[in-house]
Design a protein that fits this description.
Keywords: Signal. This is LGFP repeat protein. Pfam families: LGFP. The structure is a single chain. By secondary structure, the chain is α+β, with helices and mostly antiparallel strands. Helix content is 42%, strand content 26%. Strand 8 and strand 9 form a beta hairpin. The chain starts with a helix and ends with a strand.
Length: 199
């Protein structure tokens, strides 16, 4: 029993001496402390960078989702009924650019085919999608497009306002994938027909 105590004491003393020897060695101690400090600094830096990258990725994903929905910032559009509709900022910009004061307040806002149609009284509309940036459409060309006459909706959204035909036979309007023309029938002074031409 006595021998065991002495052996255990000697082993404990040897261990303490070994540790003391390590801690007394100035270079080893400094190296250990520096390594521990560098590891902590390195860990903190990685954590901060990871947080920044995660944050940036999150913001980028949100921006990408907004762009994919065709919705930059969402804004409230006041309707003639007193209600409001939430629309992309691009719709508001298109209304400011193409809407006429004489049309009054919008009566409806409809999201369709990846874009928006804002309706006014008197068959006036402002259309918008990200590709076109918006255009007005009205009258018979609007009726042909809104009611999908001869597959007119396949032409996509209008890219510019309607213009008179150079031969004064009617009007035409360019769309993303073609043209709609409202023109006088041959030999007639008052009968018109719609011509839907796909690119």
């Amino acid at each position: 029993m006595m021998n065991r105590k002495i052996i255990v004491s000697v082993a404990a003393l040897g261990l303490a001496t070994g540790l003391a020897a390590c801690s007394n060695d100035g270079d080893t101690s400094t190296t250990v402390e520096e390594t521990a400090t560098e590891t902590n600094v390195s860990t903190e830096t990685v954590a901060e960078e990871t947080e920044t990258v995660s944050s940036d990725a999150s913001e980028s994903a949100e921006s990408g989702a907004a762009a994919a929905d065709g919705a930059e910032a969402t804004e409230e559009l006041a309707l003639a009924s007193g209600e409001t509709a939430l629309v992309p900022q691009g719709v508001i910009d298109a209304i400011d650019k193409h809407g006429e004061a004489s049309w009054g307040e919008p009566i409806a806002a409809e999201e369709t085919d990846g874009g928006w149609i804002i309706s006014y009284d008197g068959e006036h509309y402002v259309t918008w999608n990200e590709a076109t940036g918006g255009a007005p459409i009205w009258g018979e060309i609007a009726n042909v497009w809104i009611n999908d006459v001869d597959g007119a909706r396949e032409l996509g959204f209008p890219t510019m306002p309607e213009t008179p035909n150079t031969d004064e036979t009617g009007w035409n309007q360019e769309f993303e994938n073609g043209t709609i023309e409202w023109k006088r029938e041959a030999g007639s002074t008052d009968a018109f027909e719609a011509l839907v031409t796909k690119k």
